[in-house]
Amino acid sequence: MSFLYFNTARQDDNALGKLAKDLIEANPKEIKSKVLSHRVASLKEGKLDREGEKKMNVLLEKYRKKAVEEGIEKGLAQGMQQGLEKGLEQGLQQGLEKGLEKGQNRLALLVGHLLNAGRMDDLKRVSFDEEYRAKLLKEFGL
Questions:
Q1: CA distances, 25 to each of 12, 18, 40 (Å)
Q2: What angle, rounded to 10 degrees, do the helices at 34-45 and 15-24 form?
Q3: How far is residue 108's CA from residue 90's CA, in Å, rounded to a whole number?
Q4: How far apart are CA 89 and CA 132, in angstroms?
Q5: Phi/psi zone of residue 118: left (φ > 0), alpha (ψ -120 to 50 degrees), beta?
Q6: In this structure, are residues 130 and 138 in contact, taking their beta carbons and an 8 Å threshold?
Q7: How far apart are the two ends of the chain, measured CA to CA in Å?
Q8: Residue 16 CB neighbour total at 10 angstroms
Q9: How far is Cα 140 from Cα 142, in angstroms, rounded to an integer?
């Protein structure tokens, strides 16, 4: 940031002297420079540049909407990803539980059939021989 110091005590009858007079004048109506007079009046009377204010508000609203839209998009994407992961995890867990339950039920039915048929040797063998167990499950339609 740079500063410029201007000695307003010297008010000659030239362009710089007139500017010095304008810079110390409190009444905007007495300021000769139209630009400075208008700006001082705007600041003193609280009349800011309404056109600039409108443009700034439009830009701020535009950026606010864009930020909200981006936030919603990111939130949805993150929510969908988390939901998908959680859903897959729950689905997998439920599938494993149902599969395990179904397998246990099939084995219990096979054991019951073998006991009813008095096939004790087969009953022992299905406890360790997976291929033989699959063959007997098929035999009994399980």
A1: 15, 11, 10
A2: 10
A3: 27
A4: 33
A5: left
A6: no
A7: 87
A8: 13
A9: 6
Q: Which structure tokens are listed for 26?
A: 């409190």
CA–CA gap between residue 53 and residue 47 (Å, rounded): 11
Answer yes or no: are the C-beta atoms of 17 and 11 closer than 8 Å: yes
**Residue 19 amino acid letter:** L
Distance CA 125, CA 137 (A): 13
Written as six digits, the tokens of 137 are: 């499950």
Distance CA 83, CA 80 (A): 5
DSSP single-letter state for residue 29:
G
CA distance 104 to 11: 105
pLDDT truncated to tens, each residue of the chain (142 aa)? 787 777 888 788 888 888 888 888 888 888 888 888 888 887 777 666 667 677 778 888 888 888 888 888 888 888 888 888 888 888 888 888 888 888 788 888 888 888 888 888 888 888 888 898 888 888 888 8
| Helical spans, DSSP H, in the chain | 15-24, 34-45, 50-116, 120-126, 130-139
